[in-house]
Design goal:
Helix content: 10-25%
Distance between the termini: 79 Å
Largest sheet: 6 strands, antiparallel
Number of helices: 4
Order of helices and strands: HEEEEEHEEEEHHEE
Strand content: 25-35%
Shape: elongated
């Protein structure tokens, strides 16, 4: 009985040894087909570079007065003419669409600090809205030439989209402020009330300004070349 147990134990030991040897061979076989390495994938980000070559968007104009002519039946206006206020350049790697937002109502600065504190003479208008209504602003742009005469496309606030091609796109933006005398009722008094309002403004208003901002949005995407 003891001899049989010894034989069985030897057989079991032999099977274990053979199994271990077999596993070694299999392990070596699999190892020959395994390759390992490390690295990284990288891609250059498309450059975004839309800027105003004029610096901050500022609207600076020479002094403006009302039309010098007496009322003769037609509404009277006088303007600053087109003044360059921005030069937008796209130096990036994708096209861009630019929209503008500007104030429809003028911000008025008074010599007395406020409309309420301004001269209370007989010609003072009933409210500040009458002063603001005298002034309006228009914006134009050109994508070809940096000249007022070339800036003929009018910009509508929040609506007009100016397309700037990548690398080379440029838009020259011009503004014009208009002083329109209040001649709606001038036919009945030969412009007297309108002249009085213009005179009061000339005596009490020191500055008229309009806010302007722009937003450039990506219009195309850049992909790696095959």
């Amino acid at each position: 009985m003891t001899k049989r147990k010894s034989i069985v134990s030897k057989l079991l030991l032999l099977m274990v040894i053979l199994t271990l040897i077999s596993c070694c061979f299999l392990g070596n076989t699999f190892a020959r087909y395994i390759s390992k390495d490390s690295g990284s994938a990288s891609i250059t980000v498309a450059k975004w570079d839309v800027k105003n070559n004029e610096g901050d968007v500022t609207l600076t104009f020479d002094k403006l007065s009302p039309n010098k002519d007496p009322y003769t039946g037609s509404p009277r206006t006088n303007s600053t003419g087109k003044i360059k206020v921005a030069e937008l350049v796209n130096g990036g790697d994708v096209d861009a669409n630019v929209t503008f937002t500007f104030d429809d109502t003028a911000a008025i600065t008074y010599a007395g600090g406020s409309f309420e504190a301004a001269n209370n003479g007989e010609n003072k208008p009933a409210g500040e809205a009458e002063v603001q209504a005298l002034f309006s602003i228009k914006f134009y742009y050109s994508t070809t030439d940096d000249a007022a005469a070339s800036a003929t496309t009018e910009i509508t606030s929040k609506v007009t989209k100016v397309s700037l091609a990548k690398k080379t796109g440029v838009a020259y933006v011009y503004a014009e402020v208009i002083w329109s005398s209040d001649d709606a009722e001038s036919g009945s008094d030969a412009g007297r009330a309108a002249d009085q309002l213009d005179t009061w403004v000339g005596m009490n208003v020191t500055n008229v300004s309009f806010g302007l901002s722009y937003e450039a949005v990506q219009a195309t995407q850049s992909s790696p070349q095959a």
